[in-house]
Design a protein that fits this description.
The chain has 146 residues and is mostly helical. The protein has helices spanning 25-32, 34-43, 50-57, 59-81, 86-92, 106-116, 118-136; strands spanning 8-10, 13-15.
């Protein structure tokens, strides 16, 4: 009788227990919806970077991130132009901005707020890039090929 554990065999073939990896943000979004995918992307510490998304999806990443950036800047500009204290608004979601905004013009304040809000924009970009890639027929590049 053996004292150590060995892989189980059936008819001379080794059977390994399948190790399942956790689903990706894209898989979670497709299965459970945008809100759950967004929540997962916020939890992941080793999530994708803008550089890795650009390498993997190319034009699909740009077709996702640029419109989101334009919408973000437009919203920030509209808020600043209408007297909303954007610094206070950002501090409510944990993003601090410098006090130098008091002396800058509307465009500069809006741009600073837009840049400060990039942590808010990135998770939707991560989630939507594969969707855009699928819509335009762009297959993601394997990281091993890069």
């Amino acid at each position: 009788m053996r004292n150590h554990k060995s892989p189980t065999t059936k008819m001379g073939v080794l059977h390994k227990e399948a190790k399942s990896s956790p689903p990706t943000v894209e898989e979670t979004t497709e299965k459970y919806g945008l809100e759950v995918g967004l929540a997962q992307s916020l939890k992941e510490k080793d999530g994708e970077s803008a550089k890795s998304l650009l390498k993997k999806y190319g034009i699909a990443y740009l077709a996702t991130s640029i419109p989101l950036a334009l919408v973000s800047f437009t919203i920030c500009y509209f808020l600043v132009d209408n007297g909303v204290d954007v610094a206070a608004l950002l501090s409510k979601v944990g993003i601090e901005s410098s006090g130098a905004a008091d002396k800058a013009g509307t465009f500069a304040i809006a741009y600073a707020a837009h840049k400060a809000a990039s942590p808010i924009r990135f998770p939707p970009t991560v989630i939507l890039t594969p969707v855009v890639a699928k819509l335009i027929g762009k297959e993601p590049e394997d990281e091993a090929e890069l």
